[in-house]
Amino acid sequence: MNKWKRMEDHLCMLRESHLYRTLKVIESAQSSHIRYQGRELLMLASNSYLDFCGEPRIKQYAAEILEQYGVGSGGSRLTTGTTDLHIKLEEHLARFKGREAAMVFNTGFAANSGVLPALCRDGDVIYSDEYNHASIIDGCRQSRAETVIYRHNDMDDLEQKILARPGRFGLIVSDGVFSMDGDIVNLPRLVRLADTYGLLSMIDEAHATGVIGKSGRGCEEHFQMEGRTDVLMGTLSKALGTEGGYICGPRPLIEYLKNTARSYIFSTSLSPVTMAAAKRALELIEAEPQRIQRLQQNIRWFCQCLQQQGLNAQSETAIIPIRIGDEAAALQASEWLLQHGYFIPAIRYPTVPQGQAMLRAALMASHTREELAGAAQAIAEAVKAAG
User: Fold this and answer.
1) C-alpha to C-alpha distance for 162 and 160, rounded to whole angstroms
2) Are 148 and 127 a contacting pair, CB within 8 Å?
3) Which parts of 32-155 are beta strand (E)?
4) Active site residue 340
5) Is the pLDDT of residue 224 over 90?
6) Which of 92, 150, 285, 327 has its CA 20 to 30 A from that of 357?
7) For the segment 277-306, what is each residue's pLDDT rounded down to a tens digit?
């Protein structure tokens, strides 16, 4: 009996369906230009939207903290794993988001998958956008609450589903900027519905912080709704260029989560070096709003360049999907771009629905107009070559 046959058969099926995934090993710091297999490529896939992963001032401060605090935290947050750097970062995050308090998790995935089961339980109801991130989906499942999926960003559909379940405690959860399509939640309607029907509102701002809003504070600033969302989740691993996730909200919420969120309680905490790097990145976002402005200018310019190439691409965020459909064609286009100096991945099922494969371009503030114009032309040629 071959105990591995089921796995081998599944891998074979993935290969035949053009859904098999492999690692691409980068040989340099994550930046607008990277080294891959000995060649320099233009990176158009990174979530480091402000190009902070290799920012010299962040690296210098992290090196100083490394010398002082060492490489690890040594324990979970509630035993020995919390340093003064963890607390200072949380206080800064709370101020940045206009909240009373914040708490850091090891990843954004850990934040969502830990917070939702802590807030909702059997008998409650969670209303979740159909395009929400996998971490939200997993958190909903672990909560044992009834999970009701509403059509993507469709607030009328959401309201109808709320009306069908009157009087129950629950929560509405949505990505702020959706991680594959790059569109923005209808926050005004979502918050209005939550307040009208006595539900908690929760927004995942992983791809919004440092990207949208005049000063990069995310969805609430974008809609001029500061302080209106009950639970704000975000990451340190996107625009801030480091690692970790966080939750911001009123102090009772944060104290409750510290005592109930299993992914927080039972995880060894992040390194003090990571906390220091994230705090320095947050300081730079506040001190240098021109970075956010450059990123937003790049977004408008790149969409314009793609449209001039005959591609139907539009986004208000750093995520710009180029829709192809067929998985094999998307892979072929991505490989063509790789050979011509551009790192842009093919996104396929199950990340997106089957038959809706795409190229997912992600921009940085440090990309130049010339680079983006060249990339738009190359993408058009790659899509044409892939048929």
Assistant:
1) 5
2) yes
3) 33-36, 39-43, 101-105, 125-129, 146-150
4) no
5) yes
6) 150
7) 999 999 999 999 999 999 999 999 999 999
SS3 content of the chain, % helix, strand, coil (to 5): 40, 15, 40
How many H helices and E strands in the chain? 14, 13
Query: Any idea what DSSP says for residue 26?
Result: B
Amino acid at 209: T
Q: Are strands 245-249 and 101-105 parallel, antiparallel or unpaired?
A: antiparallel
Q: Give CA separation, 293 vs 50, 280, 289, in Å.
A: 10, 19, 6
User: Can 207 be counted among the known catalytic residues?
Assistant: yes
- The catalytically annotated residue of 86, 222, 238, 279 is 238
Query: What does the alpha-carbon distance between residue 212 and residue 224 come to, in Å, rounded to a whole number?
Result: 11
Question: Per-residue pLDDT tens for 186-201?
Answer: 999 999 999 999 999 9
How many CA atoms are closer than 13 Å to the CA of 287, on its beta-carbon side? 7
Q: Could you say which of 207, 222, 279, 367 is catalytic?
A: 207
Of 179, 228, 188, nearest to 362 (Cα)?
Answer: 179
User: Whose structure tokens read 């965020």?
Assistant: 317
Cis peptide before 188 (omega within 30 of 0): no
Q: Give the chain's length.
A: 387
The residue type at 227:
G
What CA–CA distance (Å, rounded) separates 251 from 103?
Answer: 10
Q: Which of 73, 179, 263, 366 is catalytic?
A: 179
Three-state DSSP class for residue 99: coil
* C-alpha dihedral sign at 51, 182, 310, 18: positive
Tokens representing 107 are 């990843």
Is 238 annotated in the active site?
yes
Asked if 33 contacts 341 with a C-beta cutoff of 8 angstroms, the reply is: no
* Amino acid, single-letter form, for residue 172: I
